[in-house]
Design brief:
Strand 4 (120-124), helix 6 and strand 5 form a beta-alpha-beta unit. The chain is globular, with a radius of gyration of 20 Å. The termini are far apart. It contains eleven helices and eight strands. It has helices spanning 14-22, 35-43, 55-58, 70-81, 102-116, 130-138, 154-157, 167-183, 195-204, 225-228, 246-262; strands at residues 27-31, 48-51, 88-92, 120-124, 143-148, 187-191, 209-212, 220-223. The model has no long low-confidence stretch (mean pLDDT 96). The structure holds 3-methyl-2-oxobutanoic acid (KIV).
Length: 273
């Protein structure tokens, strides 16, 4: 019998993250939109990869997440799933593909799952989208909720400011989190809300919460990859920790390449056939 074993990494699933919450292990989530970056973050050991509709900003240069389409999200998700071995891949349902019509919501989620190979979808909102969430869950598709600052509603909020500072909105958010748990969501993103509120929600529900700008009391954290790598010099909110300065690194590397081409030192004889 051969002693050689292939070390196949164990896939992260909805039950993995549930167990992580139960044993108090924090969950690390990050966004990715392309094959190369997804492969790198998966190899680094990330638990969850979100193919966020922030692709509209980061990849396409739009000012909001509203313009990105379902087919564009599926394209990004396909690129990501082709690279990933271990992490669980979750795809944002984009604006206008699930609000208001549960059958359209189901069709959108089924299309994402069938065409991208992802493991779950994420949807922004609480009680107002409950029928859509229920319908998608009834088809066996895991749903991640998203409460607090929900960027698809930027025009309703009038900006990207902190949410649920007022008592009434905080109470609504807690009720929505409990509803999402009751419906059967496997996790909830809490974006840009006061840290004590995020901690309270995380204690009040048994499914994991993943925070962004929501303090240390959530069960996990998520950041946009290009933001935390310092590639987006124009975006420096208080919650963002920079883990690299790739804007500078890339600028220097490309600057050196340009100089080498111009002064004819690249390519050298060793770099030629
Ligand atoms: O689209 C996205 O990147 C997100 C995260 C910021 C949570 O929804």
């Amino acid at each position: 019998m051969s002693t050689n074993t292939i070390d196949i990494p164990k896939k992260v699933t909805t039950s993995t993250v549930q167990q992580m919450k139960q044993r108090g292990e924090k969950i690390a989530m990050i966004t990715a939109y392309d094959y190369t970056m997804a492969g790198l973050v998966d190899a680094a050991g990330i638990d969850l990869i979100l193919v966020g509709d922030s692709a509209a900003n980061v990849m396409a240069g739009y000012g909001t997440t509203l313009p990105i389409t379902l087919d564009q999200m599926i394209y990004h998700a396909q690129c990501v799933t082709r690279a990933v071995n271990r992490a669980m891949v979750i795809v944002d349902l984009p604006f206008g593909t699930y609000q208001g019509d549960e059958l359209e919501a189901l069709r959108s989620a089924v299309k994402v799952m069938r065409e991208s190979g992802a493991a779950a979808v994420k949807m922004e909102g609480g009680s107002e989208i409950a029928p859509s969430i229920r319908k998608i869950l009834s088809a066996g598709i895991p749903v991640m909720g998203h409460l607090g600052l929900t960027p698809q509603s930027v025009n309703k909020f009038g900006g990207y400011g902190i949410r649920a500072k007022a008592e009434a909105e905080a109470e609504r958010l807690i009720a929505d989190a409990k509803l999402l748990e009751e419906l059967g969501c496997f996790a909830i993103v809490l974006e840009k809300i006061p840290a004590p509120l995020a901690a309270k929600v995380s204690e009040a529900i048994s499914i994991p919460t993943i925070g962004i700008g929501a303090g240390a009391g959530t069960d996990g954290q998520v950041l946009v990859l290009q933001d935390m790598l310092g590639m987006n010099t124009g975006f420096r909110p208080k919650f963002l920790r920079l883990y690299a300065n790739l804007a500078e690194t890339i600028g220097q590397a490309v600057g050196s390449y340009i100089a080498d081409v111009k002064d004819k030192s690249f390519p050298s004889p060793e770099e030629s056939y």
